[in-house]
Amino acid sequence: MSTENLPQSPGQPSRKPRVAVVFGGRSSEHGISVVTAGAVLRAIDRTKYDVLPIGITQDGRWALTADEPERMAIADRKAPNVDQLAESSEGGVVLSVDPANREVVYSEPGSVPKALGEVDVVFPVLHGPYGEDGTLQGLLELSGVPYVGAGVLASAVGQDKEYMKRVFTSFGLKVGPYVVIRPRDWERDEPAARKKIVDFAAEHGWPLFVKPARAGSSFGITKVDEPSGLDEAIAEAQRHDPKIIVEAALRGREIECGVLEFEDGPRASVPAEIPPVQAHAFYDFEAKYIDSADGIVPAPLTEEQTVEVRRLAVEAFDAASCEGLVRADFFLTEDGEFVINEINTMPGFTPISMYPRMWQETGVDYPELVDRLVQAALRRSTGLR
Ligand SMILES: Nc1ncnc2c1ncn2[C@@H]1O[C@H](COP(=O)(O)OP(=O)(O)O)[C@@H](O)[C@H]1O
Ligand SMILES: [Mg+2]
């Protein structure tokens, strides 16, 4: 279908596609999502699209927020939040789950609900649980509104470090050694579950990385150097997710690659290298978002390695059935092998984040990136594909 102007009933003036930029959300990555949405609102072509910003509060309320990107920035090392931006402390935006009705309605206790018009595409600028994990994508499928990025399955796979590894392995991508402790393992027999980790360490050596299976931005992850640190690391990971994953530490360089869907299919960006961060035990939240990414673009790799990692990134995109975009993160081991660490279906997306920087270097600037993502979403409809 034409994406410039949506199909019109005869006699109606043509209108621009309406993009709802949804941001904030219930995850611990709320603040960075607001910052990113500010950048998207600034970059999106207003001559081509109408824009409706919708902020989700940390409690999960869909609030109507002002279209004021300048208020959506980090100030005094504090990330902004949707409650500060919401036009009211009570009103809620509702997207109909009737696929025949794309009308968005705003209602506030004691007032007559107000129609906000139709939405043609949703851009979920959300990270982590209830945003990047397939739950929101499920709601949008029910609503029949096309959306930017991965669908239900790919989102869920990308959010779960266990299933992600299982999917990659079954598609022939190499992953590092790991062991999973499910909540039931822990509840049934805690000593046995702990022994499973100790046995794993005996086989693969220390340090270990103890992680919540479904989190992000390094929340709840501990690098454990010796057995005495294990209990605290497990407890910390379980605070974020009852399912935890324990990985052997991989030695090598961290290389990542962006994948973006073009008209003719997914293409990989030039790769980047994330140097070991001295001030942080590993690449953590501060290093990644607040202090801005200090990745090297393009990664200093041989031509052969560059071709290889770009190929693997597209393979990872396809293995998880991604759409729109993904950032694929690898370790280049001392044996010269690319081991996949993870994919992010909604990677850090501020203009200084790695994904936009890699595309910038590849020749796609931030406004074009935003446009390509919206266009890719408009090209498909919801439902099986
Ligand atoms: N198995 C591992 N070996 C070595 N470093 C790791 C390992 N797992 C994670 N790290 C380090 O921790 C960072 C965050 O881990 P990651 O699994 O990417 O979690 P998140 O989903 O929070 O980004 C990685 O970028 C890397 O620097
Ligand atoms: Mg990561």
From TrEMBL:
GO terms for molecular function: ATP binding; D-alanine-D-alanine ligase activity; metal ion binding. The keyword Magnesium applies. It is found in: Cytoplasm. HAMAP family: Dala_Dala_lig. Belongs to the D-alanine--D-alanine ligase family. Cell wall formation. This is D-alanine--D-alanine ligase. The lineage of its organism: Bacteria, Bacillati, Actinomycetota, Actinomycetes, Kitasatosporales.
